[in-house]
Amino acid sequence: MRRHAVNSDNVAHAIQLALAPVFLLTGIGAILNVMAARLARIIDRGRQLTEGPIAHQPQYGDAVHAELLSLECRRHLASSAITAITLAALLVCTVIAALFLEVLLQIALSWVLSIVFMSATMALVVGLALFLREVHLATRTVRIPVPQRGM
User: Fold this and answer.
1) How confident is the model at residue 2 (pLDDT cuts 50, 70, 90)?
2) How far apart are CA 137 and CA 146, in angstroms?
3) Which among 7, 147, 141 has a CA at the least distance from the CA of 71?
4) Where, by residue number, does the polypeptide cross the bilayer (predicted)?
């Protein structure tokens, strides 16, 4: 069986097909940036509580402990979300590579592409759900006191 030479129209078509996943990668990168910033803030707040002067004042012991527990839960959720979103990005990169392999090797990889892309989508859904859970936990545990106006 003789293979046909890779034609430039096929490569151009592969590039066109790869554009949508590349734009998806751009969005995933932006999401990862936001998640990493949230994780950094969680870690910074934990360090502030454990290493700052308030950590050694017994009257704040229960409040500090409760906040540290919340921060640890949030840290775990944010870290898991970053892992899931990063997995989604890696799977999207695999889709892009497979698109070009399909053209260069002239083999049908449609079923592989479908499975890998669906897996990327599911990893993205899981990551976003974990991120949403972390945001809800943060808004539930942090209360901003608003002074009442005098009449």
Assistant:
1) very low
2) 20
3) 141
4) 12-37, 77-101, 107-132
Cβ proximity of 103 and 14 under 8 Å? yes
Give tens-digit pLDDT for 78-124: 999 999 999 999 999 999 888 888 888 888 888 999 999 999 999 99
Average pLDDT of the chain is 86
Find which of 20-34, 56-70, 135-149 is predicted with most confidence, using mean pLDDT: 20-34
Q: Do 104 and 72 contact (CB within 8 A), yes or no?
A: no
User: How many C-beta atoms surround the C-beta of residue 55 within 10 A?
Assistant: 14
Measured between alpha carbons, how far is 121 from 89 in angstroms, rounded to an integer? 10
Q: Is 145 helix (H, G, I), strand (E, B) or coil?
A: coil
Neighbours of 107 (CB within 10 A): 10
DSSP-derived secondary structure letter, 52? S
Q: How far is CA 10 from CA 7, 26, 52, 75, 99, in A?
A: 5, 25, 61, 46, 10
